Amino acid sequence: MAAFTVSMSALVGAPVKARAVVARKAVQQRGARIVVRAEGEDAKADSFAGLKPTKAADFKSMSNDELNAQIVEAKKMLFELRMKQSTRKEYKGHHFGILKTKIAQIRTVKREREVTEGVNKRDSRKIKREERAANIYL
């Protein structure tokens, strides 16, 4: 069964009845199911396609700047997932756990490095506050 993709820009402004007619004709002619996507939605779906569980060992070879960049990227993806969830778009719920675990692993690696350098908990929190002031996504 083939999928018949209809662009949202083609249907914007059209009455509901006209949209239903387009859908019925597509199903009758092709015997296909209808998938309606917004413009540019395919690119965002691809960013979640390669999302797989990670291990803390994957992050130990990275520098602190790279770790911060990874945290920012993961938090932005979490935000996109929450937006998909709230707007009732299609999403995979297990991606929440994968991203939260990834962030926790990165933070653990950062804290382990601080412990080996001899940074106590109070100073660690101070460093974290300063990093957040510089970048709101941390």
UniProtKB/TrEMBL annotation:
SUPFAM superfamilies: Ribosomal protein L29 (L29p) (SSF46561). Pfam families: Ribosomal_L29. It comes from the Eukaryota. The keyword Ribosomal protein applies. One of its GO terms (biological process) is translation. One of its GO terms (molecular function) is structural constituent of ribosome. Keywords: Ribonucleoprotein, Ribosomal protein. HAMAP family: Ribosomal_uL29 (MF_00374). Belongs to the universal ribosomal protein uL29 family. This is Large ribosomal subunit protein uL29c. It comes from Micromonas pusilla (Picoplanktonic green alga).
